[in-house]
Design goal:
The complex is a heterodimer.
Chain A lengths: L1 H9 L16 E5 L8 H14 L3 E4 L7 H13 L4 E4 L8 H9 L4 E4 L11 E4 L2 H16 L4 E5 L6 H16 L3 E6 L5 H15 L5 E4 L2 H14 L5 E5 L3 H8 L5 E4 L2 H16 L3 E2 L14 E3 L3 E4 L6 H14 L1 H5 E2 L1
Parallel strand pairs in A: 1-2, 1-3, 3-4, 4-5, 5-12, 6-7, 6-8, 8-9, 9-10
Antiparallel strand pairs in A: 10-13, 11-14
Helix pairs in contact in A: 1-11, 2-10, 5-6, 7-8, 8-9, 10-11
Chain B lengths: L10 H17 L6 H26 L7 H18 L4 H26 L3 H20 L9 H8 L1 E3 L2 E2 L2 H17 L1 H11 L1 H6 L4 H27 L10 H11 L11 H20 L4 H34 L1
Antiparallel strand pairs in B: 1-2
Chain lengths: ~325, ~325
């Protein structure tokens, strides 16, 4: 499986020099909002970070469903199980603040990972993809191929995800700047059945009316790639997101123009390391150069990069490169140790 | 006494389907293009199986919240057996169906012998089956799906009729025959209509409950397998979205939630209505945030009709009694 290839290649990251000895009592929990393939790389990232930096453990713990209450319960039970550092994808940017603050009050460093908490919160920072920027850059890449006057469709994720609106706005902005028109947004399709039904229905009726497709969520990217292959249409250009095998193969075969890679492995790997450093006494610099987004003023972009047909074979290298760059300067940029 | 045609459960939904197809087809001719009909039939084929899986439980006056979890488990078992163990797809499909049957049997046995409501039991097993699914997959899809399975899930045998419509039609006919012609089907409806009376008339209520849940599990597994073919991968999230549809379609099709009355044709048409509405929202570029509202209204409409039927049936029964 390509995912295993990704993981084994990313293991090379362990060659990155350790900057200081770690506190072996650190037990880091990496907790996504629910099951989703995007987060699967966190498991290996935590395990690699634990091995490399001598952490007590860095374990990937998945709530069974995308449900805030379930995630909160899991976080509480992890405290009683002895976990003392938390990397959390917030089930809700506002709703998760209370439990994050509760965890922080126990002395555990809390980092919002892959998605941010709404300020104010006691999370030390938020590290994730700048989703708006990724959608913006992806649309720009698409328009490079299509030129101005293009008509594009945007397929995106859950409406409850605050990133969805950011992505819709960013795609609209890039389209307006490039003289293109977003003729349809289909949202709430980050699950296979609705994605299959709606994307295929859309293409059946409107394939001739659309020049390009931008997808900004995992499942829509997979389903749209398959749908374009199914109808055999290479006229419609598409830019996807993430590194699912289906998308990468569609790029190789010319059905998809490219994909915006995110960096979940780097988030988990660097996040685990930083959580341990914070437990060892490091502090976040008062003048750390955090970015701002709609939710927080303590945002660190974990990176995103476009991978077209020439980059697909070496997409792992592209992701390694993002992670290495971020890791190398992280401590000196953001921490006082 | 023979019924007039408009008194049948399926007549109302059929009318809605015909009118909707005529209006949408006139406003957007691509709706009736062969490719779009194929897409619509693909959606209906799988969704009908999901709805039938719930319908058989509604027939006994219960509900099965674990329909999606069983379907998802069967789907990833089907994909996993082919990818990890290299099992040929017909055997993998058979084993996945068996898994669904066993999961449904477990539901039935627990409901029948504990006396706990099916709602609670299937809520618990939903969690258990989903947990097994995630334990096996770790939220990662199985990608290595044989070309034959992919073809069966996406291609047509007679354009625009997809292969998936065949199991759907066969199951619909079998269910119709079961519920309308076989003593077992009559017993299922009798248990749903009045469990106590059914027991007094010599029907094994426990046996019927177990059988209905087993059939439900089997159909959910079949839906999961069909979806693997359609999606061309074994996604762990298969089934997560089934619950609303599984209730909405039978109710639109004339089923009474308290049991004893379901319609196979009505359920099939209920699925068609939901599929057409879903397509319409996309074809006419309805605001994505409004899509949720429209679906909510559709479900409220279905529940309202259901309540109207229940009241009407109750009044009719009272009139007969007096």
């Amino acid at each position: 499986m390509q995912f295993k290839r990704l993981i084994s290649a990313l293991l090379a990251l362990t060659a990155v020099p350790t900057l200081a000895l770690a506190d072996s009592s650190s037990r880091v929990a990496l907790v996504p909002g629910g099951p989703h393939p995007y987060f699967a790389a966190w498991e290996q990232a935590g395990a690699d970070a634990a091995k490399k930096f001598g952490l007590g453990s860095a374990d990937y713990k998945v709530p069974q469903k995308w449900e805030l209450g379930l995630q909160n319960q899991m976080l509480e039970s992890l405290v009683t199980l002895g976990y003392n550092a938390f990397l959390i994808f917030p089930g809700d940017p506002v709703g998760t603040v209370a439990i994050a603050d509760e965890l922080a009050d126990t002395g555990a460093p809390v980092i919002a990972l892959a998605g941010c908490l709404k300020d104010p919160s006691k999370a030390v920072f938020c590290m994730g993809t700048d989703t708006g920027n990724s959608a913006y850059l992806g649309t720009k890449e698409l328009l490079k191929e299509l030129g101005s006057g293009a008509k594009i469709a945007h397929f995106t994720g859950f409406l409850v995800d605050p990133n969805t609106q950011l992505r819709i706005d960013a795609v609209n902005k890039a389209a307006a700047e490039g003289g293109a028109e977003v003729i349809q947004v289909i949202a709430d399709i980050d699950a296979p059945e609705p994605a299959e039904e709606k994307i295929n229905a859309y293409l059946a009726a409107h394939a001739k009316d659309v020049d390009g497709i931008i997808t900004t969520a995992w499942v829509p990217a997979v389903v749209a790639s398959s749908a374009l292959r199914k109808i055999g249409d290479k006229r419609i250009k598409m830019v996807g997101i993430d590194h699912d095998e289906v998308v990468l193969k569609a790029i190789k075969d010319g059905f998809v123009h490219g994909t915006m890679l995110q960096n979940p492995y780097g988030q988990g790997y660097i996040g685990s390391y930083v959580a341990d450093r914070l437990r060892s006494g490091c502090k976040v610099k008062a003048d750390a150069p955090f970015k701002s987004n709609a939710l927080t003023d303590k945002f660190i972009d974990s990176g995103t990069v476009f991978a077209g047909v020439n980059d697909v074979e070496n997409y792992v290298g592209s992701m390694q490169s993002i992670t290495n760059t971020l890791f190398e300067g992280f401590e000196s940029t953001y921490l006082d140790c | 006494m023979s019924r007039r045609i408009w008194e049948n459960d399926w007549f109302g939904p059929l009318l809605v389907v015909v009118v909707a197809v005529a209006i949408v087809g006139a406003l957007n001719p691509s709706f009736l293009s062969p490719f779009n009909i194929q897409i619509l039939l693909l959606a209906i084929s799988v969704n009908a199986m999901i709805a039938f899986s719930q319908m058989i439980i509604i027939a006994i006056g219960q509900m099965n919240l674990s329909v999606g979890a069983i379907g998802g488990l069967a789907a990833i078992a089907f994909g996993g057996m082919m990818e990890v163990w290299g099992i040929p797809w017909p055997i993998a499909a058979f084993l996945a169906l068996a898994l669904g049957l066993v999961a449904g049997l477990a539901n039935g046995v627990l409901v029948a012998f504990t006396g706990i409501s099916a709602f609670v039991i299937t809520l618990a097993t939903l969690s258990a089956y989903k947990g097994v699914n995630l334990g096996i997959t770790e939220a990662q899809p199985f990608y290595e799906i044989p070309a034959t399975v992919k073809a069966l899930g996406n291609e047509t045998f007679l354009h625009p009729l997809p292969w998936l419509i065949i199991p759907c039609v066969v199951v619909a006919l079998l269910l119709w025959y079961l519920l309308n012609r076989l003593p077992l089907g009559r017993s299922i409806l009798a248990v749903g209509g009045n469990e106590h009376a059914a027991e007094l008339s010599g029907i094994s209520v426990r046996g019927i409950v177990i059988t209905a849940h087993a059939v439900s599990g089997l159909l959910a597994a079949l839906a999961g397998i069909m979806l693997v073919g359609r999606l061309q991968l074994g996604q762990p999230t298969i089934g997560d979205d089934w619950l609303i549809l599984s209730f909405a379609a039978p109710v639109i099709g004339g089923a009474i939630l308290s049991g004893g009355h379901v319609s196979v044709a009505g359920t099939f048409l209920g699925v068609a209505i939901v599929a057409i509405f879903t397509q319409v929202l996309v074809l006419f570029n309805i605001d994505p945030f409004l899509v949720q509202v429209v679906l909510g209204v559709l479900i409220l409409w279905a529940v309202g009709i259901n309540r109207f039927r229940e009241v009407r049936a109750q009044r009719h029964a009272e009139q007969v009694a007096t």
